[in-house]
Amino acid sequence: MEGPQTRPYPAGWGNGVMMLLRRDPDAIRIRPARRSEMQALAALAADVAREAFPWNEVPPNPAEAYLESIDGEEVFVAFVGTKMAGFLTLYAPRNFIHTLGVVAAFRSHGVGQALIAHVRARVKGPLELKVEELNTHALDFYERNGWHRVRGEGGQGVNENGVRWFRLRLD
Predict the structure, then answer these.
(1) How far from each other are the two terminal CA atoms of the chain, in whole angstroms?
(2) What are φ and ψ of residue 124, in 5° steps?
(3) Cis (ω within 30 of 0) for the bond into 60?
(4) pTM given for the model
(5) Under 8 Å between Cβ of 37 and 45
(6) Nearest to 154, CA basis, from 136, 127, 130
(7) How many CA atoms lie within 13 A of 79 on its CB side?
(8) Could you tell me which residues come within 8 angstroms of residue 53 by beta carbon, excluding any fewer than 6 positions away?
(9) Structure confidence by residue, pLDDT tens digits, 121-138
């Protein structure tokens, strides 16, 4: 039996997502990622990163680099039907969201919000994350959903590609 389909998404799939979610707002299912899904998740994360961060250098093996970067983190996946729609990784000791990605066809349908709500219910205290200044879509998303910029030391910096980032907090 094959695992959940992660790619490709047929043209017009976004319209089907909207119809499915209107009929069943609980259609987004979130759970911890299974070991057997990690390669598909890594490939999906690499695709999302290429699209979301075109200004960043892509490592020679982006899926492998992604898996190394999330070692020791809790990994959650969101499904709509049988499609892997998004993912979130959490470094639990610091309530720090390391990565949050949503497949383009599922954006603006509540997947990112559902992933954050799922993790927020599991932790005590505020959540934090970093977002790059050039990632304006993500900055807008977070600020619309109650995140605020951390002021003072550690509230901003510049990554290895020279791109400024901000630390955000959700109390």
Answers:
(1) 42
(2) -105, 135
(3) no
(4) 0.84
(5) no
(6) 130
(7) 15
(8) 132, 134, 135
(9) 999 999 999 999 999 999
Kind and range of the H or E element at 102?
Answer: strand 96-102
DSSP tag of 94: G
Q: Which helix (H) or strand (E) holds 118?
A: helix 111-120
**Amino acid occupying residue 34:** R
CA distance 68 to 66: 5
Name the token pair of 140.
Answer: 């807008």
Q: Pairing relation of β-strands 127-132 and 96-102?
A: parallel
Q: Is the Cβ–Cβ distance between 111 and 78 less than 8 Å? A: yes
Q: Where are the alpha helices (H) located in 53-93, listed in sequence order?
A: 62-69
Opening angle at CA 93, ends 144 and 133, nearest 5: 35
The two tokens of residue 91 are 């470094």
Tokens, residue 71: 């070692």
Cβ atoms 165, 158 nearer than 8 A:
yes
Instruction: Give the model confidence (pLDDT) of 42-82 as tens digits.
Output: 999 998 988 888 888 878 888 899 999 999 999 999 999 88
